[in-house]
Specification:
Elements (H helix, E strand, L loop, with lengths): L5 H9 L1 H22 L8 H4 L1 E9 L10 H16 L7 E5 L3 E7 L4 H9 L4 E11 L12 H4 L1 E4 L5 E4 L11 H12 L7 H5 L9 H16 L5 H6 L10 E6 L5 E6 L4 E2 L3 E9 L5 E8 L1 H14 L9 E5 L2 E4 L11 E8 L1 H13 L5 E10 L1 H30 L3 H26 L5 H30 L4 H33 L3 H31 L3 H4 L9 H4 L21
Parallel strand pairs: 7-13
Antiparallel strand pairs: 1-3, 1-15, 2-3, 4-8, 4-9, 4-12, 5-6, 7-8, 10-11, 11-14, 12-13
């Protein structure tokens, strides 16, 4: 067999220092970038840092077959994500699980109750005319409701149309049984927005008859029995009502009282709102208010309904903003709003205005959902889990190091330094991925990092065993490293490819916390290839020139006697027998 060219062999062994230097520069750059960014620790997931995890299940609705499909689920995820981020929660996670579940993970430091109200309120948003309303349950003795004149403030849209409105509960009108009955009867007939004349003459109007009488009686009975102070009644209010139905609903006013309503058919849907935001009125005395901009179709619908409502007396000049069968606001109008823009003003504080704007902007979902489960993890419990995971990782790492030292002796130095380099790279990258792509280190991800210790150690073992096999064949250390590397390289690449493929498939087909395990496993597998090729191999090439290893010291891990090596391979000359040329 022809020997390798001298120049090529020297070149292959003369570059490991340069490769090693470039790798060390890359590690310093990663660590420097981590400290420069200020993100010196990985971002922790909910199960480690604490937070709330909400699982929402899509509900089948009457008359909407096949509504639960991937397109609608994807749309719902996008709206929920924007709704949560509207609370200022930039680290929340919203993702699908299976074909009908959505998981919302909200980290600690967020008002979990407020987030649940916004995320869990997942039905469609509608504007419905108020037919009648009153305080539900016993009214508190203190804090009388302010009058409309004291709490209302005018606003102006782009076209100069005046709009006066108040938040829910600025007025708490009561309705007599006769006027309630009239309102219900009128709603069940053709026009859901009765005129002031009808309302004024309600007490002298004849009793309804036929099917309208039955429907009105049923609705009146449901309204009379409704107690919005009870959670069970609030959950049943308006259940199964379609957008075109007259229905009952509950809502909470600004004094914290529960009110019950009879509402007419929906006139405007949440999908008709193009934009909504909370703004502070610096010019007038309105304070915080909510401005709305409608789509072209929505502007026409809103102008029509406000024009009808403006002709009525309270409370039938109000429209209810209904989300998940609950009234979130019931402003009144005093003139038609025809400019495509409107505002709701009154005794809002900043948080109330922002919450209402958030609901208006992101309230219309293509599906209805219900809370399947809510899991809250405290920061203390998360800290205990993180500590347990780190202890498990430390134990695993210690066992690997003990095995390497006992079995490979001096070679274990190469493995330990390589593991350290891999750990620095992994930690720095995870710390930088938190603010860049939102990666959060959860408990399964910690498990993936622990598993990666074994995968990385396995690569070193493959390389070391190939070198020792060459020494057993009688070769010296330098040629053994060069000949053993190509064979070890193929084995390492195949092994890491299988691990990475498994991690990629697991990441694609799973959701939630399991993806954290898959992501960490895939990342550490790629880093294993980088470390072995750019650090372990060059370092081993350099150490192969040191006397401690080349002479096969008994503590080097490469002692030919302990490995049972054959005698060194040497070239010998064939000596021919002398030929006697003399004749006998």
């Amino acid at each position: 067999m022809a020997a390798p060219k001298k120049g090529r062999n020297q070149g292959a062994q003369g570059r490991p220092g340069r490769t090693l230097a470039l790798f060390l520069i890359a590690i310093v750059a990663l660590a420097g970038g981590m400290f420069a960014s200020g993100h010196t620790t990985p971002r922790l997931g909910i199960d480690l840092a604490g937070g709330t995890s909400i699982t929402l299940a899509a509900k089948e609705e009457p008359g909407q077959k096949n509504a639960i499909n991937p397109t609608n689920m994807k749309t719902a995820v996008g709206i929920m994500e924007r709704r949560v981020n509207g609370l200022g929660v930039s680290e929340a996670e919203v993702q699908t699980q299976g074909d009908r579940n959505i998981i919302v993970n909200i980290p600690k430091g967020t008002n979990s109750k407020q987030a649940r109200e916004q995320v869990g309120t997942t039905a469609k948003l509608f504007f419905r005319p108020v037919l009648t309303t009153e305080v539900s349950g016993p009214a508190p003795s203190a804090s009388p409701s302010p009058s409309a004149s004291s709490s209302a403030s005018p606003g102006t849209d782009k076209d100069g149309d005046k709009a006066t409105s108040t938040p829910s509960g600025s007025t708490t009108p009561s309705a007599t049984a006769t006027s309630q009955g009239r309102a219900v009867t009128d709603a069940l007939k053709a026009d859901p927005t009765p005129s002031p004349t009808d309302s004024a003459s309600a007490s002298s109007s004849p009793s309804p008859s036929g099917s309208a009488d039955e429907a009105a009686g049923k609705l009146q009975a449901e309204y009379a029995a409704l107690d919005c102070t009870k959670e069970a009644d609030r959950a049943r209010a308006g259940e199964g009502a379609q957008p075109g139905d007259t229905t009952v609903a509950c809502g909470q006013n600004s004094q914290g009282q529960w009110q019950k309503y009879i509402l007419g058919p929906a006139e405007v849907a949440g999908t008709d709102i193009d934009e909504a935001q909370a703004v502070f009125d610096t010019q007038g005395a309105a304070g915080w208010k909510v401005t709305m901009k409608f789509t072209d179709a929505g502007a026409k619908k809103f102008a029509d309904i406000t024009g009808k409502l403006a002709k009525n007396q309270s409370p039938q000049n109000q429209f209810a903003i209904v989300l998940d069968n609950e009234v979130v606001s019931d402003p009144f109008v005093n003139q038609a709003l025809t400019g495509g823009n409107a505002e709701i003003s009154g005794s809002f504080d900043q948080q109330e205005a922002q919450d209402l704007a958030n609901m208006l902007k992101y309230g219309a979902l293509p599906l209805s959902f219900e809370e399947a489960s809510v899991t809250t993890v405290t920061a203390a419990l998360g800290g205990e889990q993180l500590e347990a995971g780190l202890i498990a990782g430390a134990i695993g790492l210690a066992l690997v190091i003990i095995y390497l030292v006992v079995y490979y002796r001096g070679l274990s130095f190469v493995a330990i330094v390589s593991l350290l380099a891999s750990a620095i790279m992994t930690y720095s990258i995870m710390s930088l991925l938190g603010p860049t792509i939102g990666f959060a280190l959860n408990l399964p991800a910690v498990c993936g990092a622990i598993v990666a210790i074994g995968i990385t150690a396995d690569s070193f073992i493959v390389f070391f065993e190939r070198i020792r096999d060459e020494i057993r064949e009688g070769r010296t250390l330098g040629p053994a490293v060069q000949r053993g590397w190509p064979r070890a390289r193929r084995t390492i690449l195949v092994s890491d490819f299988v691990s990475f493929l498994a991690a990629a498939v697991l990441f694609i087909v799973t959701v939630g916390k399991v993806q954290g395990f898959a992501f960490t496993l895939g990342l550490t597998t790629l880093l294993d290839v980088v470390v072995v090729f750019l650090f372990t191999k060059p370092l081993m090439t350099i150490l192969a020139r040191k006397r401690f290893f080349t002479e096969g010291h008994r503590w080097s891990g490469l002692d030919p006697k302990r490995l049972g090596a054959k005698p060194p391979l040497r070239r010998t000359r064939r000596v021919s027998a002398p030929v006697d040329t003399k004749e006998a």
